[in-house]
Write a structure and sequence with these properties.
heteropentamer, A mainly alpha (358), B alpha+beta (371), C mainly alpha (116), D alpha/beta (151), E alpha+beta (158), B: 371 residues, alpha+beta, Cytochrome-c3 Hydrogenase, chain B, 3-stranded antiparallel β-sheet, 13% strand, E: 158 residues, 2 domains, two-stranded antiparallel ribbon
Chain lengths: 358, 371, 116, 151, 158
């Protein structure tokens, strides 16, 4: 069976046989970098097209259907357009920070790729504090947004950045707490361990209602953290035209835009890993034959399938709900999500200690 | 905090919202003074689309000037034309044939539904929900198609002439309108599912943009805005024109006084319009669709004032005639202009998000304000 | 791969972003126009400065977040070992979350969580 | 309330008021000096209660300007029209924007297009036209060779 | 009681959101409801109603004859000065001079399709055509001469 694990292993052993260890390491680094960049580019193209198609079908229209078969190359054409656009920097802007901001958001998005297990045994860095690493790195993205908003010297951008600051830091808490409930159940911070703990069933099934609650909280919190509607107050185009990236154009805009979509992918990938067992195939109790068939589906397909399902849910939110107001947004977090997730964490703890899960 | 509202102090942010802004639905320019997110003052700047229609009309004949008024409130262009035609008829003392009266009322109500549909979609879009906009256009397109078939145009129909309507109804008209009513009734529950019942939407709309009954009268608000504050001001009920006196419908009133009240008013008004259409569609009397008029119309010396209930409120047409073929002075009392004056009062103390919600319920059409 | 992957990924991100911007630079033939440098404010010139003192409302949340986030970090090591320690861990975290919750209620009562 | 009854009440509160026949509503003509007082009384006199000002406009009669105010009472549903002659060279009249809030924008419009200055108006500026515009477009003798198309 | 309200709030809120998602989910899976018209592709099926007002045309029959007497009623009726009629004097075989149409100039760029000229025409010589694709690269192309070269007035039209 073709799997990423064997491919990476064979590449690794071939490199180490052919070259000296230093060169092999360098070459591996290059391969990883190229793979990451390729993943970024592909994901950007696919997710933008997916978003537009999902939006279109929900809005009883066709969506992009001119460029390529069924409009498949629409986002490629858009990318080419964005490359051809002039990237302006406003006169009054803090030029250094203004140009730095897209790099920051891109670096954050890229760093978050490291601990994600894309397939069985296919992970860039299986860090033993994976969950902590993710919470830590994802907090940095707010700095990029604040930087972009403040440096633009534009009032809309400033307001958007400020909103986004208050919003992201608030939702960080309940996202963290809901992730913790899985950590409690799995007893490890390492993502591969968490996936391994779900080999006999995903946490969302094994964990009863408390895990479902923490999953709902997680989805709401990450929707808010990635500035997606209904929490897109940082952009809020009917209020602040385009929020923190009002002044960005051309390639710099494209980078911010891309990073946003990559962030969605990453949080959905983490959600899939924590709650849906990552690359683990679906196994149902003692149905041996069913479980065997499921095993034949490659693990990477499982992972991407789950992730894209979560992405679809987040898109579904966007094209259904109106936007919240800033005070309601924070009220939702501080009045509902945070107390609930605290209590929920205790419930999960009791469940974990008593062993009340399958 | 509250006592600071209305003053400008250090640390306040002055932001221009409009003329090129997604929430203003046109070229309205608001200068907003903010403290953090809280609005302290709003100053509307108008005139970006001012064409001085009143001056233009002074050089147009009584047949010609009607078409210009379609360009004021283009979403209820038919009702604008109606008010103008009624004013001319008042001056000439023309009796409009019953068939024409019914046709006019049918078209008015279709226009009102189309206008409210667009508003419903745009309102949801202001609050960040894009999908309802497209769903609203599905119904609106059907009305536009009906209009196109009978009147010859989709938006600026110019179907009215002094004394009646320009052409008879299209043979398909009755059937298509009935189809539309069936379509509308099958989709009405979706409006509640998608928008009205949504908790986020209600949270955004409730207790936002408060306008008390006294303020609504003092600011000269009409239409759904005043009715949302409990002011009875439906011209169709108070001063019935054409066949409005003979059909059964309710004047929708709400006493919530907030954005959500105004939102509900418009939703229910659409249903009242459907009710009017249902009563009339099978009872269109025969006869002429136009009264006999002279080729060149001359209004007698005097002043004439006619009003009609557009989708936005009371439209008044005030003609001063010196006996010639053109009006000496014409004044359009447009609903949007008065409604806009209340915006500052309604939005003060709220957030930027509230401003958008309030402005959405005002249903501003900028050419109507600028004229 | 180990921690070296972080450096690799940062470099990849920088290369990707810089590459994109540079490629765009090659293609774009920009024209000079003083209007282009203006900040976008719906086509009207900006009034006053943007970088002035700002309502404190936004920062309060950042401060409260800081407190809670630090507390949250303490829960991480606990979460890993909770299954091994058993009942004792539950009591400990009960006390911890109780104190945290009291702090939360205090902030709520003080109106710090209300938007201004 | 019929027009005759209204006439009696109005004559009672303002002796200098004259009436103009014709038209569906009662037309009251008073001088600009009495206007502010009269407006207060229109709003507050019991039985009149004209709380809703729905149309404010000005007419250029080439020899003079006339301000026209349309009032309705939302309680009694009667309508009256008040007309005030103004000097054409320097038209000035007291504002009523403190009695009816809607007048603020309407008076700015009249100022913008006719050049009537409203005394004590809180914010009397051009509404539609730019602040440096010369002339009053809706006056009959206004000429704008660039923007006006003669048919 | 506080807790009960708290939980009912959450329940109601989540329910309303799920109802909304069910509606959009329905449309996502039911592609038959799509109402988009693929405009330039559906030119053939595009059925404009006969009353649709696209532009003014002067009707010509197969003998290249029209019904315009050059009476300028349409020119007077037009609010925008869209129509300009230039007349000439035809000399009939009996030697009588008769006013006739020379050039019917139509400024499409000024036209608002208000139909007043068609209503005003005493001989029904002009009608509204259904063509709506008027875009051109040069504004001057929108000024049209409506009477075809060599056309003349139909017999019996006064």
């Amino acid at each position: 069976m073709l799997s990423f694990h064997s491919i990476t292993d064979s590449i690794d052993s071939w490199l180490n046989h052919t070259f000296s260890p230093t060169v092999a390491l360098l070459l591996e680094c290059t391969i990883v970098a190229i793979a990451a960049i390729a993943l970024f580019a592909t994901l950007g193209l696919v997710l933008v097209l997916m978003e537009r198609k999902v939006a279109a079908f929900m809005q009883i229209r066709m969506g992009p259907n001119r460029v390529g078969p069924k409009g498949m190359f629409q986002s490629l054409a858009d990318t080419i357009k964005l490359v051809m656009k002039e990237g302006l920097t406003p006169d009054g802007a803090d030029k250094f920070l203004f140009n730095l901001a897209p790099f920051i958001v891109m670096i954050v998005a890229m760093l978050l790729l490291a601990p994600i297990g894309f397939a069985s045994g296919f992970q860039i860095w299986d860090i033993n504090i994976g969950v902590l690493y993710i919470s830590a790195i994802s907090s940095i993205s707010v700095i990029g947004i604040l930087m972009a908003g403040w440096a633009s010297n534009n009032k809309y951008s400033l307001l958007g950045a400020m909103r986004s600051g208050a919003q992201i830091v608030s939702y960080e808490l309940s996202a963290g707490l809901s992730i913790l409930s899985i950590v409690v159940l799995s007893g490890s911070l390492q993502l591969s361990d968490i996936v391994g703990a779900q080999s006999n069933g995903w946490w969302i099934f094994k964990g009863h209602i408390p895990v479902i609650i923490s999953f709902v909280i997680f989805i709401i919190a990450v929707t808010a953290e990635t500035n997606r509607a209904p929490f897109d107050l940082a952009e809020a185009e009917s209020e602040l035209t385009a929020g923190f990236h009002t002044e960005y154009s051309g390639m710099k805009f494209a980078l911010i835009f891309l990073a946003e979509y990559i962030n969605i992918f990453i949080v959905c990938a983490i959600g899939a890993t924590l709650f849906f067992g990552g690359w683990m195939p679906l196994h149902i109790g003692n149905w041996q034959s069913f479980n065997h068939i499921m095993d034949y589906i490659p693990s990477s397909l499982w992972f991407f399938g789950k992730t894209f399902f979560l992405i679809f849910v987040i898109m579904w939110f966007r094209w259904t709900f109106p936007r919240l107001r800033i005070d309601q947004l924070l009220q939702l977090e501080w009045k509902y999500l945070l107390p609930i997730s605290m209590v929920n964490l205790l419930l999960v703890t009791v469940m974990a200690i008593m062993g009340w899960y399958f | 905090m509250i006592e600071e509202i209305g003053t400008t102090a250090e640390g306040d942010l002055v932001i221009n919202i409009g003329p090129q802004h997604p929430a203003t639905h046109g070229v309205l320019h608001l200068v907003v003074t903010l403290n953090g997110e809280t609005i302290k003052k709003i100053e509307p700047h108008l005139g970006y689309i001012h064409r001085s229609i009143e001056k233009m009309c002074e050089s147009l004949s009584y047949r010609q000037f009607i078409y210009v008024t379609s360009r004021m409130d283009y979403l209820s262009s038919h009702i604008n034309n109606h008010a103008c035609a009624m004013c001319v008829e008042k001056g000439l003392q023309i009796e409009v044939p019953p068939r024409a009266q019914v046709i006019r009322v049918l078209m008015d109500e279709l226009t009102r539904i189309a206008s409210h549909e667009l508003w419903w979609g745009a309102m949801a879009m202001d609050l960040g929900a894009f999908t309802p906009f497209f769903h609203a256009f599905r119904e609106r397109e059907t009305i536009n198609d009906i209009m196109e078939e009978t009147c010859g145009a989709r938006l600026t129909m110019n179907y009215m002439v002094p004394g009646g309507v320009m052409a008879d109804l299209h043979p398909n008209f009755q059937k298509r309108v009935k189809d539309f009513i069936a379509l509308y009734k099958s989709k009405i529950s979706e409006y509640d599912e998608l928008v009205t019942g949504n908790i986020i939407f209600q949270g955004r709309m409730k207790d936002v943009g408060f306008l008390s009954k006294e303020d609504a009268i003092s600011y000269g608000c009409t239409g759904p805005i005043a009715r949302g504050s409990g002011v009875s001001c439906d011209i169709r009920k108070l001063y019935p024109y054409e066949v409005y006196g003979q059909v059964e419908f309710d004047e929708v009133l709400e006493t919530r006084c907030d954005s959500f009240g105004r939102y509900l008013i418009r939703l229910r008004e659409m249903q009242q319009s459907i009710r009017i259409i249902e009563q009339l569609i099978d009872n269109i009397p025969g006869g002429d669709f136009q009264a006999k008029t002279k080729a060149v119309l001359k209004l007698p010396k005097g002043e004439f004032y006619a009003r009609a209930e557009t989708a936005r409120g009371e439209l008044g047409v005030y003609i001063i005639s010196e006996g010639g073929t053109t009006p000496y002075r014409i004044k359009f009392r447009s609903p949007g202009f008065s409604n806009l004056s209340a915006l500052d009062h309604m939005a003060r103390g709220g957030k930027i998000g509230d401003l958008v919600a309030t402005m959405g319920t005002l249903d501003l059409v900028i050419p109507d304000i600028d004229r | 791969m180990g921690s070296i992957s972080l450096i690799v990924l940062v470099l990849a991100a920088v290369a990707f972003s810089a590459g994109g911007i540079l490629v765009a630079k090659i293609f774009v033939k920009g024209t000079k126009n003083p209007q282009k440098g203006q900040a976008y404010e719906c086509g009207i010139k900006t009034e006053g400065t943007t970088w002035n003192q700002f309502n404190v409302g936004y920062y309060l949340f950042a401060l409260i977040f800081l407190i809670f986030d630090v507390e949250l970090i303490f829960i991480y090591p606990w979460a890993v070992v909770v299954k091994k320690v058993g009942m004792m861990a539950l009591f400990e975290i009960l006390v911890f979350i109780f104190i945290l919750f009291m702090g939360f209620l205090y902030a709520h009562k003080k109106g710090a969580l209300k938007w201004m | 309330m019929t027009n005759e009854e209204l006439k009696i009440i109005i004559s009672g509160i303002e002796t200098t008021a004259t009436f103009e026949e014709g038209g569906e509503w009662i037309n009251v003509i008073i001088g600009a000096d009495q206007w502010k007082d009269f407006a207060q009384k229109l709003r507050n006199t019991q039985g009149l209660d004209l709380d809703y000002l729905f149309c404010v406009t000005c007419v250029d009669w080439k020899t003079h300007l006339t301000m026209v105010y349309h009032f309705t009472s939302t309680i009694h549903r009667h309508t009256i029209v008040v007309k005030i002659k103004l000097d054409r060279s320097e038209p000035a009249i007291e504002t009523v924007s403190d009695i009816w809030r809607t007048a603020e924008l309407h008076e700015r419009e009249a100022y913008d297009l006719f050049g009537v200055s409203f005394i004590n108006h809180p914010d009397l500026r051009r509404l539609f036209l730019t602040d440096d515009w010369v002339g009053w477009p809706l006056r009959k003798d206004y000429e704008d060779p660039i923007n006006m198309i003669k048919l | 009681m506080f807790l009960k309200d708290y939980i009912t709030d959450i329940y109601k809120g989540v329910k309303s959101l799920l109802i909304g998602m069910r509606r959009t989910g329905y449309y996502f899976t039911h592609h038959k409801e799509i109402i988009t018209q693929q405009y330039p592709d559906n030119r053939e099926e595009l059925n404009l109603p006969t009353r649709f007002r696209g532009e003014v045309i002067l009707l010509h029959d197969e003998n290249n004859e029209h019904a315009c007497t050059g009476c300028t009623a349409c020119e007077l009726a037009c609010p925008n000065g869209t129509i300009k009629i230039i007349t000439k004097f035809d000399v009939s075989p009996e030697g009588k001079k008769k006013k006739a149409l020379d050039t019917f100039i139509y400024h499409l760029e000024l036209c608002t399709m208000c139909n007043l000229c068609v209503v005003a025409c005493p001989t029904d010589a002009i009608v509204m055509a259904q063509n709506f694709e008027h875009s051109v690269y040069d504004r001057s192309k929108l000024t049209k001469k409506l009477n075809k070269p060599g056309s003349k007035i139909r017999e019996g039209i006064e």
